[in-house]
Each structure stands twice: as structure tokens, then as C-alpha cells.
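pls design
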């Protein structure tokens, strides 16, 4: 990443403890910042009561002071020129918080004043150089935005794919249920066909019996009449 020449946007980066108003690490850039003033600023009641993870700012001595505190009472400070964009300041302090806590978190809660300045010099100076060059920061922001947009599109596509899978699964289940119902219908139809066949057979047998009885009666009557005629 190209650092280029100083742009005059960033003046100071620091980390302190609000509990005892101790500045544990600092880095001046583009101009010398009076560290005693920084510590006095940290001691102000409104600074000590800053809501964790909320970006705050105020203007003093021709600069903007950006402040953000974490849940462990560490406060991260950035001073810039007055027209410095908020999104760049926010990203700078977020990156400082993540990197500093990751590397020096345990020591930061107990070290003496400015005890981590030398050890964190490379990190602090690198962030000052990076966020001093707004053109480069904006390019990174645009790239990050495109990556986030691509990520959201991919998530939407995955959700659609999962939804389609669910729909296909529903269709498969419905088809299986339909096949089961079809088999049951076919089985019931065969059973009904057998019952109807037996019913028809019973009807035919009953008709045959009735016809046989009627024929028997008729034959008996005729036989009686014939026998009666012979006797005369």
C-alpha cells in the first residue's frame, strides 16, 4: 500500500484509560500535540462519561477531536483537521481499537503512563499514515462497500437457492403423497369392483332361484290339471 507524502489530515492518535485518566500510548503526526492537553481532555467529566462504542467529537484549537470508548474503559482518540470526514474517523478508531486491544489489551489496563507508546509505535504510525491519505482511504471504503454489496447479493442468492430447494422438497413430498393416494384409490377401486361382482353374482343366483321356483310352480299346476283331465 502506497503511503505517499503527508497530507495534513491526521494530527494525533492515542489510547488512554478513563478510569485514571492515563494516556497509555500516543502518536503525533503532521504536528506536535501537547500530551498534557490530551490528558486534561481525558479528565473532563463529559469525556469520562462517553457511551461505549459511540463515536463522539468536538472542535478545539482548530482541530476535531474524535473519541470512542470501549467496555473496558479504554478510550481511543484521534485529532484531525476540521473538514475530516466522519466515516474515515470512525473507521480509523475502529481499526485502532481492534488492533490495539488484540495486541496490547491486557497490558493497557495496568501499564504506566505512555508505557505502550514505544511498543505500539509501528501500529499507531501506520494508521496515521493510512488515514492521513483520504484518497486511498476512500478507495478502500469503496472496495469494502462493493465487497459488502457482493456478499449481500450472494446471501440473497443462497437464500433463494435454499427456498427453491425447500419448494422442490415440498413438490417431491406432494408427489409422493399423491402416489400413495393413487395407490390407495386403485386398491379401493379393486375392492369395490370385487364387491360389486359378488353382489351381481348374488343377484343372478337369487333371480335364478326365483325363476326356478316359478317354473316349478307352473309345471306343478300344469301337471295337476293334466292329471285331473285324465281322471274325467
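designed seq:
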Amino acid at each position: 500500500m502506497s503511503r505517499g507524502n503527508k497530507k495534513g489530515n491526521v494530527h494525533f492518535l492515542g489510547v488512554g484509560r478513563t478510569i485514571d485518566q492515563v494516556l497509555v500510548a500516543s502518536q503525533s503526526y503532521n504536528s506536535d500535540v501537547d500530551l498534557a492537553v490530551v490528558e486534561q481532555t481525558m479528565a473532563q467529566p463529559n469525556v469520562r462519561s462517553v457511551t461505549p462504542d459511540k463515536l463522539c467529537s468536538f472542535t478545539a484549537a482548530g482541530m476535531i477531536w474524535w473519541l470512542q470508548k470501549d467496555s473496558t474503559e479504554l478510550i481511543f482518540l484521534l485529532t484531525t483537521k476540521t473538514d475530516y470526514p466522519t466515516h474515515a474517523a470512525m473507521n480509523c478508531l475502529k481499526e485502532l481499537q481492534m488492533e490495539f486491544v488484540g495486541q496490547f489489551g491486557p497490558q493497557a489496563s495496568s501499564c504506566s503512563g505512555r508505557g505502550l507508546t514505544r511498543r505500539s509505535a509501528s501500529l499507531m504510525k501506520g494508521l496515521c499514515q493510512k488515514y492521513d491519505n483520504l484518497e486511498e482511504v476512500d478507495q478502500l471504503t469503496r472496495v469494502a462497500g462493493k465487497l459488502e454489496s457482493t456478499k449481500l447479493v450472494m446471501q440473497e442468492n443462497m437464500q433463494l437457492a435454499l427456498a427453491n430447494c425447500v419448494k422442490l422438497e415440498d413438490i417431491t413430498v406432494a408427489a409422493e403423497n399423491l402416489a400413495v393416494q393413487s395407490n390407495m384409490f386403485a386398491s379401493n377401486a379393486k375392492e369395490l369392483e370385487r364387491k360389486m361382482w359378488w353382489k351381481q353374482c348374488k343377484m343372478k343366483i337369487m333371480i335364478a332361484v326365483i325363476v326356478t321356483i316359478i317354473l316349478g310352480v307352473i309345471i306343478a299346476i300344469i301337471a295337476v290339471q293334466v292329471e285331473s283331465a285324465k281322471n274325467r
